[in-house]
Amino acid sequence: MKLALRHPRLNLTLDRTSSQHAPARSPSISHCNLVARQRRWLAFQAAPRSAPIHRHESSMGLHPEGPLMPVSRSPQQPDASFASPGEADAQSLAKWLESRADGRWLREICSCGECRNQDTAQRNVNVFKMNQRSSALRQISPAANGKGVEVIFEDDHESFFPIQAFINRTTAQTQENRAGFTPVKTWSADVANNPPTVKHVDLKTGPGMSGLMRLIREYGFAFIDQMPATPEASEDLLRSIGPIRDTHYGAFYDFTSDLSSKDTAYTAEALEPHTDNTYFTEPAGLQALHMLSHTGGSGGESSLVDGFAAAEQLYRQDPRAYEILSTTGVHAHASGNDGVNIQPSQAVPTFVHDQTLGMLQQVRWNNADRGGVATAFENLKHWYDAAAQFDEILSNVKNQYWFQLQPGKMLLFDNWRVLHGRAAFTGKRRMCGGYINRDDFISKYRTTNLSKDELSSSTVTG
After folding, report:
1. Per residue in 156-195, is it b (16+ CB within 10 Å) or e — as a string?
2. Taking the domain 90-170, which CATH number applies?
3. Could you tell me the pLDDT band of residue 62, with boundaries at 50, 70 and 90?
4. Which residues pair with 95 in a beta bridge?
5. pLDDT number for residue 73
6. Mean pLDDT (the chain, rounded)
7. Residue 160 above 60 pLDDT?
8. Which of 172, 207, 301, 311 is the most buried (most CB within 10 A)?
């Protein structure tokens, strides 16, 4: 049975299914705030009337189809009041800029050799310290070739701007290129039938590295097969992606289960699905694990869970629970080693969203390292109820991909998306691996998968 719920101010009709709190299937709405208000209204209507309503003032806006889609795949203006003209011709663009453009902005996005270093793409001018005439507009006119506009400033500086430069900065594709976004492919236990894998030898070519980065952005993980089972080969592969992150555990790690570092990862105990580094303000983006040997025992199977798929499942079954885990900050800590007491600069929600595109960007979940929940005492019940649902999804064997790590087969995974765990084991295992910062990981993806023009339009002129 479905009941039509009409929002009195937003002019939206939402469906509420009596058997399940399903998200509304409303038409696409381009403005993030409207989408956020729509979701809050849905959560309010879906909540049982006998329970207290947990209201949140949040700027989070989700695509009506779910948290893994950008808010809109159509042009949008999330970072300025600038909007590209409706007609992409030089004459209309010149008139449009005359009425709206700020001279300081036009001067600092000029790409000529005087205004921008041609080798580094860095800006040479500082519009805040220039003579006022240097950013004052004298004339804006369509270029003779019809491919852009020519601008003359009051200090006689002349600039040319192609039409595409103004269109690019507001397209959804440009916004996605900035974030290194690619549509994700969610998975469950059946990914075991065909896990994403590349051969080590293929990574010695540009296309090989491009394919590896794309697989990890799509699936959240990939195996590198047929590689030497040595720490040297493992470290070299990591460094070919980006600098290895140094932490209180060291940089590249090569360890056995002797608790040499005070963390349960350095034991033979079972580990529940978790993400690493929740105690850092910015957890590592990419993680590598390579088992070099396992002697005198058995067990130690590894597990992976797609955190994005689990979050989306929670969103489908209880939008209100998803909202709570997206807006309630959680503290975390690393305190086991002498002289170490690390905590994030602030409490961070379990689900973190891209502020521009609106979709889910990061899952932070580590029960062992979790500290307090940053919410009022009367709201703790709501957080624990929501977290219990998420934990149940993560613990469902249908969502867990189990496998045995093998010498010569390294695992690389996105620590902002994929949770990893382990069964208990006996004997002695030697493991190596390391972390790579999120920015370095995304940089490698962008530089191996985007064209020079795509990189330029999403950074320099954006």
Report:
1. ebebebbbbbbbbbbbbebbbbbbbbeebebbbbebeeeb
2. 3.30.2020.30
3. confident
4. none
5. 54
6. 83
7. yes
8. 311
Q: What is the pLDDT of residue 144?
A: 94
pTM: 0.79
Q: Identify whether the C-beta of residue 277 lies closer than 8 Å to the C-beta of residue 285.
A: no
Of 251, 235, 335, give the one whose Cα is nearest residue 292: 235
* Domain 189-452 CATH superfamily: Clavaminate synthase-like (3.60.130.10)
How far is CA 46 from its chain centroid? Answer: 28
Where along the chain do the CATH 3.60.130.10 domains lie? Answer: 189-452
| Residue pair 85/108 in contact by the 8 Å Cβ criterion | no
Average pLDDT over residues 396-417: 98
Per cent of the chain over pLDDT 70 is 80
Return residue ranges of the chain for CATH 3.30.2020.30. Answer: 90-170
List C-alpha distances in Å: 4 to 18, 62, 63, 64, 201. 11, 21, 20, 16, 57
**What integer pLDDT is reported at residue 279 of this predicted model?**
96
